[in-house]
Write a structure and sequence with these properties.
Blueprint: H1 13-47, H2 51-73, H3 77-85, H4 87-90, H5 97-113, H6 117-133, H7 137-153, H8 157-173, H9 177-193, H10 197-211, H11 218-235, H12 239-252, H13 263-277, H14 281-294, H15 302-318, H16 322-336, H17 345-360, H18 364-376, H19 382-398, H20 402-419, H21 424-440, H22 444-458, H23 465-484, H24 488-498, H25 504-521, H26 524-534
Helix pairs in contact: 3-5, 5-6, 6-7, 7-8, 8-9, 9-10, 10-11, 11-12, 11-13, 12-13, 13-14, 13-15, 14-15, 15-16, 16-17, 17-18, 17-19, 18-19, 19-20, 19-21, 20-21, 21-22, 21-23, 22-23, 23-24, 24-25, 25-26
Length: about 550
Amino acid sequence: MQASTPPLKPLSSRTKWLIALCLCIAVLLLEFLTYHMAYRIGYDEGALHTPPVVIQKSDEKAFQTLSRFMADVFASRESLAGILDKREERLAWIRDPEVRSETAWGLTRELISRGGVEQALPTARELIEAGYADGKRQVWAPRADAVARALLAEHQYAAAYDYLKTAVDGYEKESMAAELVKALQTMSSIDQILNRNDQANGLLQRAVEASARLGSDSLAVKSRLLAAQGRLARAAGHIPESRAYFKEALVLFPREQGKTTGDLALASISMGEAMLEAGRKEEARELFLKGLTGSENASYLLNDCLNALRGLARISTEQGNYEEALAYLHQAEGAARGVLPADHAFWAGLYDQRGWVNIMRKAAPEARADFLKAVSNAAVSPMIAAQSREGLGKAWLDAGEGAKARENLRQSIQVRESNFSSDTLSLGRVYHSLGIASDMEGDREGALQAYSRAVDALLKCGDGPERKNLLVQSYLCKAYALCDGEQWQEAVDAFEAVLPLLEGEQRSENYKQLGRCYDELGMTAKADECWKESGFPRVRRSSPVRRTDGGRISSRR
């Protein structure tokens, strides 16, 4: 029989505490060794990678976290704006300053895309200024440009202009020529919208100089910039200078273009104007339509789109399609309504052009209404003032109101002689109309004086169909006025002077009038020769039949 094992004695309290203490020491030692080993492995692994890769992975993780955070929390524009207002606190979890700045810009861009450009501006300005201070203009200049375009989409031209100036400063210092040219031309378009044409031209000249650094694209870009300068010169009444710009632009213009969007739309419209100035109307029409199709409602192209519509209206007017011209002008009016201020120079030009279309349509009341709107515009230019006063005079002539016609025609002459005295063709045309108005009022002396000045002005012009027609009519009207005053020798001089310009029936009629004048002078031999050349049977009258028909006045633009 096996002896029984005696029971174990229970552990004393002292032994129990000793065992517990040993276990604690073992656990702490194990934790320390495990942490140290993991830390070293992680450190060594991290040391195998270059810092940019580590930063990139960190950035990607941060943006992923931010994306999830935005999707979960920022459901409204206001909440996103709130995050930007307190971004130092709300983005404090991003330790890397560069990543935090990029995250703030991402939030700003998101807010702008949601229509919160006003709420995003304070943060955008601070971020851009900080980026410039850090010398990162190459990154932040395009971002300033992007903010400007967002402001332009909301027609906030003054605010957009400031951001574009910031972008231009960065582009210039970083030698970013292509971006610089685009920004300068956009600033020029804003200046035109704000009636600052001198500044607009200065910016275009800077853009022309910068375009020389564009390599193979420089000529194409320069062509559209020159065309834009031509438009400004024409608006200021500098016609020879304007034509020189357009002529040079046409030489540089590339014949083949790709898809017409954005800047190519702008180029098409600018070159359409150059084609129109050169008389190449169908090519101009095609370019205008192409530019309008490719504008994609870009607000910074508004000024150019309006010019394209007015160019199309001008082509339609010159081709006799008056209703089509009016349709284009009404379209331009609708596009500018609510965008351009009421005192903008665009309105004066639009109403002046529409007034002349209505003159061509024989719609004198509508023409007078448009011309009155043009001359009452606070920003009316001297050129538009001269044209609209002339148009009012013509409209009152058509209504048989000689006195009102004379009043407006005299104002037109005054503006022209003060500002555009070298434009002798236009001066001759207005003086001719003034002569007709004076005739209508029975003022023979006033009519004679106006016709004489018309002839003097037109003799200084270069050749052309409009000049020839006006010169013929002015000579004849002057001759008839002299006959009314029984100034036979002076009348003979006028009839003789116009003779080389006449053909066919006009020439025969002129010889008949000369024959009558020589009869009055008692110069029978001369009278016989003239009657024979005329082909009319000889008739003795006290004076030639008075004709006050001045012929058709040329269309205005």
